[in-house]
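So, can you check these C-alpha coordinates?
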Amino acid sequence: MANMISLAVAFVAAWVIYKLLCFGRREDTLPPGPPTIPILGNAHLLPRKFPFIKLAEMAKDYDGIFSLKVTNGTIVVVSNMKTCKELLDDRSAEFSSRPAFAGMDIVTGGRYFATAPALSFMKYMEVFKKVFSPESAPVDFIPALLYVPERWAPWKKMWKETRELQQSLYFNMFKDVIQGQRNGMYGDCFVAKVIEQQEELGLDQETMAYIGGILLDGGAETTASLIQNLVLCVTKFPAALQKAQMEIDSVVGERLPDFRDIKDLPYVQALIRETHRLLPTAPTAVPHASVNDCEYRGYLIPKNTPVLFNIYGICRDPELYDRPDEFWPDRYLLSPDGTRPGLPESMSGVRATLPFGSGKRICPGMHLANANTNLAIMRLLWAFDFAAADGSLSMTPQLNIEKEHCDIQTTFRE
Protein backbone atom coordinates (compact mmCIF):
# COMPACT_ATOMS: atom_id res chain seq x y z
CA MET A 1 0.00 0.00 0.00
CA ALA A 2 2.84 2.37 0.90
CA ASN A 3 4.44 1.67 -2.47
CA MET A 4 1.19 2.52 -4.25
CA ILE A 5 0.91 5.83 -2.38
CA SER A 6 4.55 6.69 -3.13
CA LEU A 7 4.00 5.84 -6.78
CA ALA A 8 0.88 8.01 -6.93
CA VAL A 9 2.67 10.93 -5.26
CA ALA A 10 5.59 10.57 -7.65
CA PHE A 11 3.22 10.48 -10.62
CA VAL A 12 1.36 13.62 -9.47
CA ALA A 13 4.65 15.41 -8.77
CA ALA A 14 5.98 14.48 -12.21
CA TRP A 15 2.75 15.67 -13.84
CA VAL A 16 2.89 19.02 -11.97
CA ILE A 17 6.54 19.52 -12.92
CA TYR A 18 5.76 18.69 -16.56
CA LYS A 19 2.86 21.18 -16.61
CA LEU A 20 5.03 23.88 -15.05
CA LEU A 21 7.74 23.28 -17.63
CA CYS A 22 5.13 23.55 -20.41
CA PHE A 23 3.58 26.70 -18.91
CA GLY A 24 4.86 29.58 -20.99
CA ARG A 25 6.12 27.39 -23.84
CA ARG A 26 5.37 28.58 -27.39
CA GLU A 27 3.10 26.29 -29.41
CA ASP A 28 4.69 25.02 -32.63
CA THR A 29 1.88 26.47 -34.75
CA LEU A 30 2.49 30.08 -33.63
CA PRO A 31 4.73 32.54 -35.46
CA PRO A 32 8.34 32.23 -34.25
CA GLY A 33 9.70 34.32 -31.42
CA PRO A 34 12.40 34.61 -28.78
CA PRO A 35 13.20 31.48 -26.73
CA THR A 36 10.87 31.03 -23.77
CA ILE A 37 11.56 29.97 -20.19
CA PRO A 38 9.18 27.88 -18.06
CA ILE A 39 6.27 29.71 -16.40
CA LEU A 40 7.30 33.21 -17.53
CA GLY A 41 7.50 32.52 -21.26
CA ASN A 42 8.96 35.78 -22.64
CA ALA A 43 7.68 38.05 -19.85
CA HIS A 44 11.23 38.53 -18.53
CA LEU A 45 12.25 40.12 -21.86
CA LEU A 46 9.70 42.95 -21.76
CA PRO A 47 10.75 46.12 -19.91
CA ARG A 48 8.20 48.11 -17.93
CA LYS A 49 9.18 51.31 -19.74
CA PHE A 50 9.20 51.75 -23.52
CA PRO A 51 8.41 48.11 -24.48
CA PHE A 52 7.92 49.18 -28.12
CA ILE A 53 11.66 49.87 -28.41
CA LYS A 54 12.44 46.32 -27.29
CA LEU A 55 9.82 44.96 -29.71
CA ALA A 56 11.47 46.84 -32.58
CA GLU A 57 14.83 45.27 -31.65
CA MET A 58 13.29 41.77 -31.51
CA ALA A 59 11.67 42.27 -34.92
CA LYS A 60 15.07 42.37 -36.64
CA ASP A 61 15.33 38.58 -36.19
CA TYR A 62 11.95 37.80 -37.78
CA ASP A 63 10.19 38.43 -41.09
CA GLY A 64 7.58 41.01 -40.17
CA ILE A 65 5.70 38.97 -37.57
CA PHE A 66 6.62 37.17 -34.35
CA SER A 67 4.94 35.94 -31.19
CA LEU A 68 5.57 36.33 -27.48
CA LYS A 69 4.42 34.13 -24.64
CA VAL A 70 3.55 35.97 -21.44
CA THR A 71 2.99 33.14 -18.95
CA ASN A 72 0.05 31.27 -20.51
CA GLY A 73 -0.98 34.18 -22.77
CA THR A 74 0.05 34.85 -26.37
CA ILE A 75 0.79 38.15 -28.11
CA VAL A 76 1.46 38.46 -31.84
CA VAL A 77 3.56 41.44 -32.93
CA VAL A 78 3.51 42.86 -36.48
CA SER A 79 6.66 44.79 -37.26
CA ASN A 80 6.73 45.78 -40.93
CA MET A 81 4.47 47.60 -43.37
CA LYS A 82 4.00 44.67 -45.75
CA THR A 83 2.57 42.44 -43.01
CA CYS A 84 0.52 45.33 -41.64
CA LYS A 85 -1.12 45.83 -45.05
CA GLU A 86 -1.81 42.11 -45.48
CA LEU A 87 -3.51 41.75 -42.10
CA LEU A 88 -5.25 45.11 -41.67
CA ASP A 89 -6.16 45.88 -45.29
CA ASP A 90 -6.43 42.60 -47.18
CA ARG A 91 -7.81 40.63 -44.20
CA SER A 92 -9.29 43.39 -42.06
CA ALA A 93 -12.46 41.43 -41.24
CA GLU A 94 -10.39 38.66 -39.66
CA PHE A 95 -8.46 41.03 -37.38
CA SER A 96 -11.14 43.62 -36.58
CA SER A 97 -11.80 42.50 -33.02
CA ARG A 98 -10.26 43.91 -29.84
CA PRO A 99 -8.72 41.90 -27.02
CA ALA A 100 -10.36 42.07 -23.61
CA PHE A 101 -9.23 45.02 -21.49
CA ALA A 102 -10.10 43.97 -17.94
CA GLY A 103 -9.47 47.39 -16.42
CA MET A 104 -11.42 49.24 -19.12
CA ASP A 105 -14.34 46.84 -18.74
CA ILE A 106 -14.58 47.51 -15.02
CA VAL A 107 -13.98 51.26 -15.29
CA THR A 108 -16.60 51.82 -18.00
CA GLY A 109 -19.03 49.09 -17.04
CA GLY A 110 -18.59 47.65 -20.53
CA ARG A 111 -19.65 50.92 -22.18
CA TYR A 112 -16.48 51.91 -23.99
CA PHE A 113 -16.77 51.97 -27.77
CA ALA A 114 -13.08 51.74 -28.87
CA THR A 115 -12.93 53.19 -25.97
CA ALA A 116 -16.72 69.35 -17.12
CA PRO A 117 -14.74 71.52 -15.64
CA ALA A 118 -11.16 71.63 -16.93
CA LEU A 119 -9.50 70.65 -13.64
CA SER A 120 -11.84 67.68 -13.14
CA PHE A 121 -11.16 66.46 -16.65
CA MET A 122 -7.39 66.81 -16.27
CA LYS A 123 -7.46 64.85 -13.02
CA TYR A 124 -9.57 62.16 -14.65
CA MET A 125 -7.25 61.86 -17.68
CA GLU A 126 -4.21 61.47 -15.41
CA VAL A 127 -5.87 58.47 -13.76
CA PHE A 128 -7.45 57.13 -16.95
CA LYS A 129 -4.17 56.85 -18.85
CA LYS A 130 -2.72 54.78 -15.99
CA VAL A 131 -5.58 52.29 -16.30
CA PHE A 132 -4.89 51.95 -20.02
CA SER A 133 -1.13 51.57 -19.56
CA PRO A 134 0.16 47.96 -19.77
CA GLU A 135 2.91 48.73 -17.29
CA SER A 136 0.42 49.60 -14.54
CA ALA A 137 -1.78 46.50 -14.77
CA PRO A 138 -0.49 43.53 -16.80
CA VAL A 139 -3.80 41.66 -16.42
CA ASP A 140 -4.60 41.87 -20.13
CA PHE A 141 -1.46 39.88 -20.93
CA ILE A 142 -1.45 37.66 -17.81
CA PRO A 143 -5.13 36.74 -17.35
CA ALA A 144 -4.49 34.77 -14.15
CA LEU A 145 -3.79 38.07 -12.36
CA LEU A 146 -7.48 38.93 -12.66
CA TYR A 147 -8.15 36.48 -9.83
CA VAL A 148 -5.59 37.95 -7.42
CA PRO A 149 -7.39 39.31 -4.30
CA GLU A 150 -7.79 43.09 -4.28
CA ARG A 151 -5.55 43.59 -1.24
CA TRP A 152 -2.63 42.21 -3.28
CA ALA A 153 -3.71 43.81 -6.55
CA PRO A 154 -3.43 47.62 -6.35
CA TRP A 155 -4.64 47.96 -9.94
CA LYS A 156 -8.11 46.76 -8.89
CA LYS A 157 -8.43 49.63 -6.42
CA MET A 158 -7.29 52.01 -9.17
CA TRP A 159 -9.96 50.63 -11.52
CA LYS A 160 -12.73 51.28 -8.98
CA GLU A 161 -11.53 54.80 -8.22
CA THR A 162 -11.33 55.59 -11.93
CA ARG A 163 -14.82 54.19 -12.49
CA GLU A 164 -16.22 56.54 -9.83
CA LEU A 165 -14.33 59.53 -11.24
CA GLN A 166 -15.39 58.74 -14.80
CA GLN A 167 -19.06 58.35 -13.90
CA SER A 168 -19.03 61.63 -11.98
CA LEU A 169 -17.42 63.51 -14.88
CA TYR A 170 -19.57 62.01 -17.63
CA PHE A 171 -22.88 62.38 -15.77
CA ASN A 172 -22.19 65.97 -14.71
CA MET A 173 -21.49 66.93 -18.33
CA PHE A 174 -24.56 64.99 -19.48
CA LYS A 175 -26.76 66.78 -16.93
CA ASP A 176 -25.39 70.10 -18.18
CA VAL A 177 -26.56 69.25 -21.70
CA ILE A 178 -30.05 68.26 -20.48
CA GLN A 179 -30.32 71.48 -18.48
CA GLY A 180 -29.03 73.47 -21.44
CA GLN A 181 -31.70 71.97 -23.69
CA ARG A 182 -34.38 73.14 -21.29
CA ASN A 183 -32.93 76.64 -21.50
CA GLY A 184 -32.81 76.59 -25.29
CA MET A 185 -29.06 75.96 -25.51
CA TYR A 186 -26.96 73.24 -27.19
CA GLY A 187 -29.37 72.79 -30.09
CA ASP A 188 -26.60 71.66 -32.45
CA CYS A 189 -24.63 69.79 -29.78
CA PHE A 190 -23.77 66.17 -30.66
CA VAL A 191 -25.04 64.79 -27.34
CA ALA A 192 -28.24 66.83 -27.68
CA LYS A 193 -28.86 65.11 -31.02
CA VAL A 194 -28.28 61.72 -29.37
CA ILE A 195 -30.81 62.60 -26.65
CA GLU A 196 -33.38 63.53 -29.31
CA GLN A 197 -32.97 60.05 -30.84
CA GLN A 198 -32.87 58.15 -27.53
CA GLU A 199 -35.98 56.06 -28.16
CA GLU A 200 -35.09 55.36 -31.78
CA LEU A 201 -31.59 54.22 -30.81
CA GLY A 202 -32.73 52.35 -27.71
CA LEU A 203 -30.22 54.00 -25.38
CA ASP A 204 -30.34 54.46 -21.62
CA GLN A 205 -28.97 57.58 -19.92
CA GLU A 206 -25.68 56.00 -18.87
CA THR A 207 -24.93 54.89 -22.42
CA MET A 208 -25.72 58.37 -23.77
CA ALA A 209 -23.43 59.91 -21.17
CA TYR A 210 -20.65 57.54 -22.23
CA ILE A 211 -21.16 58.31 -25.91
CA GLY A 212 -20.42 61.94 -25.14
CA GLY A 213 -17.60 61.18 -22.75
CA ILE A 214 -15.78 58.89 -25.15
CA LEU A 215 -15.35 61.81 -27.54
CA LEU A 216 -13.18 63.45 -24.89
CA ASP A 217 -11.33 60.26 -23.95
CA GLY A 218 -10.56 59.41 -27.54
CA GLY A 219 -9.42 62.82 -28.71
CA ALA A 220 -8.07 64.94 -25.88
CA GLU A 221 -5.16 62.71 -24.91
CA THR A 222 -3.82 61.97 -28.39
CA THR A 223 -4.29 65.53 -29.65
CA ALA A 224 -2.42 66.96 -26.67
CA SER A 225 0.32 64.36 -27.12
CA LEU A 226 0.87 65.20 -30.80
CA ILE A 227 1.07 68.94 -30.10
CA GLN A 228 3.45 68.32 -27.20
CA ASN A 229 5.63 66.08 -29.38
CA LEU A 230 5.78 68.68 -32.15
CA VAL A 231 6.77 71.45 -29.73
CA LEU A 232 9.45 69.11 -28.39
CA CYS A 233 10.78 68.47 -31.92
CA VAL A 234 10.88 72.10 -33.08
CA THR A 235 12.52 73.09 -29.80
CA LYS A 236 15.25 70.53 -30.28
CA PHE A 237 15.60 71.38 -33.99
CA PRO A 238 15.21 75.18 -34.27
CA ALA A 239 16.06 75.21 -38.00
CA ALA A 240 12.83 73.30 -38.66
CA LEU A 241 10.91 75.80 -36.53
CA GLN A 242 12.35 78.76 -38.45
CA LYS A 243 11.59 77.15 -41.82
CA ALA A 244 7.97 76.48 -40.83
CA GLN A 245 7.53 80.01 -39.49
CA MET A 246 8.93 81.54 -42.68
CA GLU A 247 6.45 79.51 -44.75
CA ILE A 248 3.53 80.57 -42.53
CA ASP A 249 4.60 84.22 -42.67
CA SER A 250 4.80 84.15 -46.47
CA VAL A 251 1.34 82.59 -46.85
CA VAL A 252 -0.60 83.97 -43.89
CA GLY A 253 1.12 87.22 -43.02
CA GLU A 254 -0.20 89.15 -40.03
CA ARG A 255 -3.63 87.53 -39.79
CA LEU A 256 -4.39 84.46 -37.65
CA PRO A 257 -4.15 81.16 -39.62
CA ASP A 258 -7.39 79.30 -40.28
CA PHE A 259 -8.37 75.80 -41.48
CA ARG A 260 -8.00 76.70 -45.17
CA ASP A 261 -4.32 77.62 -44.91
CA ILE A 262 -2.89 74.15 -44.29
CA LYS A 263 -3.17 73.17 -47.98
CA ASP A 264 -0.80 76.02 -48.88
CA LEU A 265 1.79 75.06 -46.25
CA PRO A 266 3.60 71.94 -47.52
CA TYR A 267 6.50 72.23 -45.09
CA VAL A 268 4.17 72.57 -42.09
CA GLN A 269 2.33 69.46 -43.32
CA ALA A 270 5.69 67.68 -43.58
CA LEU A 271 6.58 68.84 -40.07
CA ILE A 272 3.38 67.35 -38.65
CA ARG A 273 3.81 64.06 -40.52
CA GLU A 274 7.44 63.76 -39.41
CA THR A 275 6.35 64.27 -35.80
CA HIS A 276 3.79 61.48 -36.23
CA ARG A 277 6.52 59.25 -37.67
CA LEU A 278 9.33 59.89 -35.21
CA LEU A 279 7.22 60.22 -32.05
CA PRO A 280 3.93 58.37 -32.61
CA THR A 281 1.37 59.14 -29.92
CA ALA A 282 0.51 55.43 -29.65
CA PRO A 283 3.73 53.53 -30.47
CA THR A 284 2.00 50.13 -30.55
CA ALA A 285 -1.47 51.45 -31.43
CA VAL A 286 -4.54 49.95 -29.76
CA PRO A 287 -4.23 46.15 -30.07
CA HIS A 288 -6.38 44.24 -32.51
CA ALA A 289 -7.47 40.64 -31.99
CA SER A 290 -8.21 37.74 -34.30
CA VAL A 291 -11.94 37.13 -34.74
CA ASN A 292 -11.43 33.38 -35.28
CA ASP A 293 -8.51 30.99 -35.63
CA CYS A 294 -6.54 32.50 -38.53
CA GLU A 295 -3.89 30.93 -40.76
CA TYR A 296 -1.14 33.25 -41.96
CA ARG A 297 2.06 32.19 -43.76
CA GLY A 298 1.55 28.67 -42.45
CA TYR A 299 1.18 29.82 -38.84
CA LEU A 300 -2.00 29.60 -36.76
CA ILE A 301 -3.09 32.69 -34.84
CA PRO A 302 -5.69 31.48 -32.30
CA LYS A 303 -9.03 33.21 -31.84
CA ASN A 304 -8.94 36.32 -29.59
CA THR A 305 -5.14 36.56 -29.69
CA PRO A 306 -3.98 40.17 -29.13
CA VAL A 307 -2.15 41.50 -32.22
CA LEU A 308 0.13 44.50 -31.69
CA PHE A 309 1.11 46.65 -34.65
CA ASN A 310 4.43 48.22 -33.69
CA ILE A 311 3.96 51.63 -35.30
CA TYR A 312 7.19 52.82 -33.68
CA GLY A 313 9.18 50.03 -35.37
CA ILE A 314 7.46 50.39 -38.75
CA CYS A 315 8.07 54.15 -38.80
CA ARG A 316 11.79 53.65 -38.09
CA ASP A 317 12.37 50.82 -40.55
CA PRO A 318 15.71 51.54 -42.31
CA GLU A 319 14.48 49.66 -45.38
CA LEU A 320 11.68 52.21 -45.73
CA TYR A 321 13.31 55.44 -44.60
CA ASP A 322 16.59 57.25 -45.08
CA ARG A 323 18.00 58.40 -41.74
CA PRO A 324 15.06 56.77 -39.89
CA ASP A 325 16.10 57.93 -36.41
CA GLU A 326 16.50 61.58 -37.41
CA PHE A 327 13.92 64.35 -37.38
CA TRP A 328 13.91 65.34 -41.06
CA PRO A 329 10.59 66.80 -42.32
CA ASP A 330 12.01 67.32 -45.82
CA ARG A 331 11.65 63.59 -46.51
CA TYR A 332 7.93 64.28 -47.14
CA LEU A 333 8.81 66.86 -49.77
CA LEU A 334 10.91 64.27 -51.64
CA SER A 335 8.33 61.47 -51.72
CA PRO A 336 4.60 61.45 -50.90
CA ASP A 337 4.90 59.05 -47.96
CA GLY A 338 8.39 60.07 -46.83
CA THR A 339 9.97 56.75 -47.76
CA ARG A 340 13.05 56.15 -49.87
CA PRO A 341 12.39 57.18 -53.49
CA GLY A 342 12.11 54.21 -55.86
CA LEU A 343 10.94 51.60 -53.36
CA PRO A 344 8.89 48.71 -54.83
CA GLU A 345 5.14 49.10 -54.36
CA SER A 346 5.00 46.15 -51.93
CA MET A 347 7.27 48.05 -49.52
CA SER A 348 6.14 51.65 -49.97
CA GLY A 349 2.76 53.21 -49.34
CA VAL A 350 3.12 54.08 -45.65
CA ARG A 351 -0.12 56.01 -45.32
CA ALA A 352 -0.36 59.33 -43.53
CA THR A 353 -3.24 57.73 -41.62
CA LEU A 354 -1.06 54.99 -40.10
CA PRO A 355 -0.88 56.71 -36.67
CA PHE A 356 -4.69 56.49 -36.59
CA GLY A 357 -4.73 52.74 -37.24
CA SER A 358 -5.88 50.84 -40.30
CA GLY A 359 -8.57 48.53 -41.59
CA LYS A 360 -12.06 48.48 -40.08
CA ARG A 361 -10.72 49.74 -36.75
CA ILE A 362 -9.24 52.98 -38.07
CA CYS A 363 -9.96 55.94 -35.79
CA PRO A 364 -13.42 57.35 -36.69
CA GLY A 365 -12.39 60.79 -35.45
CA MET A 366 -9.31 60.97 -37.70
CA HIS A 367 -10.50 63.82 -39.94
CA LEU A 368 -11.76 65.91 -37.02
CA ALA A 369 -8.50 65.31 -35.14
CA ASN A 370 -6.40 66.29 -38.16
CA ALA A 371 -8.36 69.48 -38.74
CA ASN A 372 -8.12 70.55 -35.11
CA THR A 373 -4.45 69.68 -34.63
CA ASN A 374 -3.47 71.32 -37.93
CA LEU A 375 -5.17 74.53 -36.84
CA ALA A 376 -3.66 74.46 -33.35
CA ILE A 377 -0.16 73.77 -34.68
CA MET A 378 -0.34 76.48 -37.36
CA ARG A 379 -1.38 79.03 -34.76
CA LEU A 380 1.28 77.95 -32.25
CA LEU A 381 4.03 78.25 -34.85
CA TRP A 382 2.60 81.57 -36.09
CA ALA A 383 2.48 83.09 -32.60
CA PHE A 384 5.34 81.62 -30.55
CA ASP A 385 9.03 80.83 -30.42
CA PHE A 386 10.25 77.86 -28.39
CA ALA A 387 13.61 77.22 -26.73
CA ALA A 388 14.94 74.65 -24.26
CA ALA A 389 15.65 76.33 -20.95
CA ASP A 390 18.38 73.89 -19.96
CA GLY A 391 19.59 72.95 -23.45
CA SER A 392 18.65 69.26 -23.21
CA LEU A 393 15.46 67.44 -24.17
CA SER A 394 14.52 63.76 -24.20
CA MET A 395 13.25 62.44 -27.55
CA THR A 396 11.82 59.10 -26.36
CA PRO A 397 8.18 58.54 -27.38
CA GLN A 398 5.72 57.57 -24.68
CA LEU A 399 2.60 55.46 -24.50
CA ASN A 400 0.33 58.50 -23.94
CA ILE A 401 1.56 61.86 -22.73
CA GLU A 402 3.53 60.71 -19.70
CA LYS A 403 6.48 62.88 -20.71
CA GLU A 404 9.22 63.70 -18.29
CA HIS A 405 9.06 67.35 -17.33
CA CYS A 406 10.53 69.48 -20.12
CA ASP A 407 11.50 73.04 -19.28
CA ILE A 408 10.68 74.85 -22.53
CA GLN A 409 10.65 78.62 -22.76
CA THR A 410 7.77 80.02 -24.81
CA THR A 411 7.85 83.61 -26.03
CA PHE A 412 5.67 85.66 -28.36
CA ARG A 413 7.21 86.22 -31.78
CA GLU A 414 8.12 89.77 -32.66
Remarks:
- The two ends are 96 Å apart (CA to CA).
- The chain has one domain: 2-412.
